[in-house]
């Protein structure tokens, strides 16, 4: 059988290809099956394994090799191919000719869309991993292979020449093998004595694409060949383009070598850090997530304090109609917000959080009632839900009813956090301003401000309710809950939380600005209301 060596037949490109590694086990986890599982998983593939040999090895060398019966190897291969669609196959250590032929028979039968063969013969420690008679069988296996990835000693064995000492010699040998066996060859320059590590993808017609990376100064090179070939096998199933797959795999491998020092495995040639990218985006610690959310809405925070509504509320010059509109919208908002908090309570993963949101929902209704009884009864304003309020509660409802728990928490958080912040700042400024007025007159209880004193601040009673310590405490708890949800969630979940939080923060700004917009757009109605 001859494979089309240049393209992989198109069968749809899976995001999570089912990739089978047929290879030997390295109990130290840096090479063989174990490295393959890590490389496949790091690229989003679903890893499957059929173990051809068990080695007793560590980072310092191979002590012995055990080869299970070939009959059992075949049973494993058949069990997989009879049940599972295999998108890609990576082949590593095949310890003898019998094993190689058995794998060849299975490939001929199943014809996987992608077959990458790492012709493992010698480990980086210098130990031989294959018997002499197996060379011929390996060459025959190339007929069932799309890409073969020899290192320089392996390439030399395959073309029966001395090991290449220069990159030019290596390329020459690669071209001989590619043409003779009608197979793509990835010649790897890791064994060269140079400060760069060039690789080259050579087609049977001799055309080639080179990939060069700086040599990483590290002893942790155990399993580079296994890792690279498994990554290419996975990427090829996703991209269908060999040079793109090799390029991506090589760039990732270089980073895995650079990050290998983060691990501390063994006293010899240590393993690469296969999950360097994943671990770099690992779950945020402590309050990191909420701190980043807060920083991301610095623009909205500044914008709130620049609003006429806020400045006029503090100065006492806010038109009554604006304040009345705000109170009505606040009451309408709180009714809807309470339902969303009740939904957060229903989704909460712990009883404590369930109780917290349920209490929040109840408090909203109590505050809403208070607004009607105390504030709106004195200043009756008849308003329907305004557009900003409507958009804000629609956004919250969407997060509550179609988002995850983390998204609901992130969506409701700005109402707590920004209100607490605005309250804290306004209360402090109000108290300071009132103190200045009263200092000349004598001691006056500040919470009596606005209660009948001539020339008193028209919103004094309202401003005096800000900076409630109980609400500040609830805000701290809501922030901690958001951090915990972010730690539990995936990166994608955290992105959705960020978006939900940022949207709500913008709605908070718009909410404070809505009375002015409402007055500007409907001056007659405002006057009548
Ligand atoms: N120190 C290093 N720095 C950067 N890349 C390396 C280093 N050592 C090996 N590589 C790369 O690792 C891959 C495997 O190379 P090689 O060591 O030649 O094969 P093998 O691991 O099969 O012996 C190649 O892409 C090679 O360029
Ligand atoms: C079980 C097993 N398979 C393969 C190897 C050699 O792996 P390779 O990736 O070629 O690694 P280095 O030569 O870079 O170590 C192995 N040691 N064990």
Automatic annotation (TrEMBL):
Gene Ontology, cellular component aspect: cytosol
SUPFAM superfamilies: Heme oxygenase-like, Ribokinase-like
One matching Pfam family: TENA_THI-4
InterPro entries for the chain: Haem_Oase-like_multi-hlx, HMP/HMP-P_kinase_dom, PM/HMP-P_kinase-1, Ribokinase-like, Thiaminase-2/PQQC
Origin superkingdom: Bacteria
Pathway: Cofactor biosynthesis; thiamine diphosphate biosynthesis; 4-amino-2-methyl-5-diphosphomethylpyrimidine from 5-amino-1-(5-phospho-D-ribosyl)imidazole: step 3/3
Keyword vocabulary terms for this entry: ATP-binding, Kinase, Nucleotide-binding, Thiamine biosynthesis, Transferase
Record domain Pyridoxamine kinase/Phosphomethylpyrimidine kinase: where: 26-273
Functional description taken from the UniProt entry: Catalyzes the phosphorylation of hydroxymethylpyrimidine phosphate (HMP-P) to HMP-PP, and of HMP to HMP-P.
Protein name: Hydroxymethylpyrimidine kinase
Lineage summary: Bacteria, Bacillati, Actinomycetota, Actinomycetes, Micrococcales
